[in-house]
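Incident review: delayed structure delivery

Summary: a single-chain prediction request sat in the queue longer than the usual turnaround. Root cause was a stuck worker, restarted by the on-call engineer. No data loss occurred. The affected request and its eventual output are reproduced below so the record is complete for anyone auditing the incident later.

Affected input:
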Amino acid sequence: MLPEIESSGVSHTGPVREDNQDAIQLPDRSLAEDHGWLCAVADGMGGYSHGRVASTLALQKLFAVFYGGSDPDVPQALRRGVESANLGVYQAAQQMGVGRMGTTITAACLVNSTLYLAHVGDSRAYLIRDRRATCLTNDHTTVGDLVRMKVLSPDKVRTHAQRSVLTKGVGLALFVQPDITRHTLKEGDRLVLCSDGVWSMIQDHEFAELAGKTKGARELSQCLIDLALERETDDNVSAITVHIHSLSPAPAEQERRGKSWALPLRNLFSRRDDPALCCYSHL
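Output delivered after worker restart:
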């Protein structure tokens, strides 16, 4: 039995920025069904040159390595994908002579009933279950460090003047170590990946409230973007939502290890782009 997973993503330039430095990516369904449903959000760093180049290139590298390899170890494949993204962005900056450019990456891979996350920066992943939203990622920012040291309370993060000062990013140095985490999913769960232009405008509990009021992944994605714009975010806004309608049973360990992941990358990066808005969905 194949899992039934609905997903959708929306990215918008926002009311202040002249260009959209965010990038979002969902895979070709044929790749997802066989090797994991990988989706990701990347937020190019506005304080450096060519943030859009960095975010787009990072996702291309991540997806190419993840789906083009032969390693069935999902955490290791995600780690290698982020490392390739980091090196690709770092080298592109050197070749372009633009100094440093960088991006965040928050990537989610769903395999059977397991969610794997790879994370660098301050985009976020939320799990919505039983009308509650839980943030599954740690912000790699100066303010995030203060919260973890219990110097600053979590409710002060969104309004802090240094909220967007990253302590770790993709492409800023020759090496990067992503956070790789694993979580067990249940039928009915929803997952939200979003850039800080979204979560800085929306409280954690509001993610769950909006999920309860919307009918599908595409409607939830659009509602998140609309709310961030309505509250006058000063950044690009991007969100991917995933709704787990049903899950497939996990295969036997031996069968999983023996399966090759080497696949053609046809249509992997096909997308519909608009200077202000891009939106695409899978069911």
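Verification: The helical segments are 29-35, 51-68, 74-96, 142-148, 196-199, 204-213, 217-230, 253-257.
Action items: add queue-age alerting; document worker restart procedure.
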